[in-house]
């Protein structure tokens, strides 16, 4: 028993010593390694894309929706009564001013012309006779070979014959006009509509007569739209500058339209109190007829005068609650915070109305990697204006 009691403490001592040695061995590398680790080096300046601010001559554009309208629209009605003899147009055809669209039976009107011509010939013969009689009477009067009342009578007959000739000539012109009206011609150049009558129908004349077809002009064409007061002020500065209307550019945008540009032609004389908008109208060239009256179109209205402005990329603008800012660099390439005020959007850029000056350097890419006060390595980028090709002048 005594031997066993003596062995137990010795065994425990060995285990304790071994455990202590193991702990010492485990801690020793940690302490020695920690003391050997060097102090961390200072961080290198971050590379960021930087652009130098410059002024650009631009026009800003406002977007609207409008309707295309024909400059001229004509209801074709007969000017003389009669039977439709021939229709010479195709529905939807482009016609020129003066083209014959259809004809009306001309037999009656041709006879009227012939009758009027005969009346003119008769009146001309009577005038010739009465003029000769009056001339002979005037020659006899100095010798008192005829009575005074006969002289006066023959002179009056000559005057009456002259008036009758003029009346006959006027009737002839009227008959010729009516004969000409039997050919219904296009009063303007444009696109013809559908025909409302067919060959053989009798038609009446004048404003109460039937509409034979319609005709609308094609080139140029109107584009009417409603603009808010602020947009008008941006385009013209004031409502009183109506003499500058022709200098305000307008362009059609949207799918299905080729690039079409025009000029402002009308600014209405009052603002709609309900909507706060004013009626405007632009005049657009339409040589190929791609724009059709009644069609819905999207458009942009620019400014009458181009202006200088500072533009920055949208990606270079940061948001701080309700404020906008950019990060700029000083001469030592140190970053600083600069609050700015923004104007209109121009494609992928924004106009800066305050907070920046020409020559300032702003960070375009890499804003997330730097903070105010940090030193950076600037990598200049060039603003080639490709995103502003349609807005820079």
TrEMBL record:
Pfam families: Beta-barrel_RND, BSH_RND, HH_MFP_RND, RND-MFP_C. GO terms for cellular component: plasma membrane. It is a lipid-anchor. One of its GO terms (biological process) is response to antibiotic. Residues 220-302 form the Multidrug resistance protein MdtA-like beta-barrel domain. Residues 73-214 form the Multidrug resistance protein MdtA-like barrel-sandwich hybrid domain. Its main location: membrane. Residues 113-182 form the Multidrug resistance protein MdtA-like alpha-helical hairpin domain. It is found in: Cell inner membrane. Transmembrane segments: none annotated. The keyword 4Fe-4S does not apply. The keyword Kinase does not apply. GO terms for molecular function: transmembrane transporter activity. Keywords: Coiled coil. Gene3D superfamilies: 2.40.30.170, 2.40.420.20, 2.40.50.100, Helix hairpin bin. Residues 151-178 form a coiled coil. Belongs to the membrane fusion protein (MFP) (TC 8.A.1) family. This is RND family efflux transporter MFP subunit.
